[in-house]
Amino acid sequence: MTKNNSGQVIVIGGGVVGLASAWxxxxxxxxxxxxxxxxxxxxxxxxxxxxxxxYRYVSPLADEGVPLKAFKWLFQETGPLRFKPELDLRQWxxxxxxxxxxxxxxxxRTTNKLLQLGELSKRAMEQLExxxxxxxxxxxxxxxxxxxxxxxxxxxxxxxxxxSPTRQxxxxxxxxxxxxxxxxxxxxxxxxxxxxxxxxxxxxxFCEALAQRLTEHPNFRGFVHxxxxxFVVENGKVSWLDTTAGKLSADAFVLAAGIQSRTLxxxxxxxxxxxxxxxxxxxxxxxxxxVAPEISVTDFxxxxxxxxxxxxxxxxxxxxxxxxxxTLNPKRIASLTRQVKETMPRAADYTKIEAWAGLRPATPNxxxxxxxxxxxxLWLNVGHGPLGFTFACGSAALLADLMQGKAPxxxxxxxxxxR
Length: 419
Prior knowledge:
Layout: E1 8-12, H1 16-27, E2 31-36, E3 52-53, H2 66-73, E4 81-83, H3 89-100, H4 104-127, E5 144-148, H5 151-159, E6 167-171, H6 172-178, E7 191-195, E8 199-200, H7 203-216, E9 220-225, E10 228-234, E11 237-243, E12 246-248, E13 252-255, H8 260-266, E14 275-285, E15 296-299, E16 304-309, E17 312-321, H9 330-343, E18 354-362, E19 369-372, E20 378-382, H10 388-403
Parallel strand pairs: 1-2, 1-13, 2-9, 4-17, 5-15, 13-20
Antiparallel strand pairs: 3-8, 5-7, 6-7, 10-11, 11-12, 14-17, 14-18, 15-16, 16-17, 19-20
Helix pairs in contact: 1-7, 1-10, 4-10
């Protein structure tokens, strides 16, 4: 049963984070209107992402040794990183902050916090099972296998303390035996780390199903399709939101619009430390005789993710720092396709590949930004990077608690705007 709160909330953003925020606020008793600039929901970063729900594999991108690796990647034709300098101070500020976070102690603190958020997100997703059946979005508990090509990287990963009962360390032979899709590269692997309990699903289908449930909720006030252009602030709070669909007023506003949140927050004098990390994905149909992965696989050195979602193979990879440019780069798609065919040559019908690119709103330390701002009625749920699908339900549950004045289930240090 939901509470009967009188507050009316406008959620800005119709991706997985915005939709989940709307749902949890509805369940808390708020009246909710959702603003999305596109004609359909989840057509941005939530559309064709990697599809992995990796609640325990949440290590931040910023870590000790990453700057040197990144420098080497820049000179590799098939490297996972591409960088295009911009005349934009936001890019350089983000890079400076990222480099400051590339320390082992900072990485460990952030990882510990993200593990807490991941566990909460897993439980929150489970709560939705009665509302949205798993088959509606191809949810499957696949487990997750991170494979290492370098003996040094494998040794470093296995040396990290981890008391999780779901963790197993596999040799290269065991990786191929447990996941036959890796047979072609078994002799190139040093080993792998497997975690049960991780899942894969279709994020876009999840968003469509959740959007439908919103329309059926008695507290939902409807969708508004228009682009937010700026907040109007008066007397320490947001009075209204200017949009191409007209002025929108509410008791509270939730900003969950992916990388667009950065520009919109600036209209209220708020600087969000985010930058768009452009990622690519390939989707190919799986034929009857194909050997597609049943386990979700991450190729650690190449930073490539493989997931079987229903009858399709989803592959996601690469980080392009090229500003707010979501266009497909043919060279990057060709490079990724070659790597996929080499690693899993019989996993899908690669003659029918659908390519996609999206902008992942990332913070320098990979932790999302949740909770209040200096304005009493403006709230944030942004900066999830490549883990938006993984963290969407947990961050939405946290946000709903905070907006009701409830204490969160764990300390939010490192997860708020004041970090």
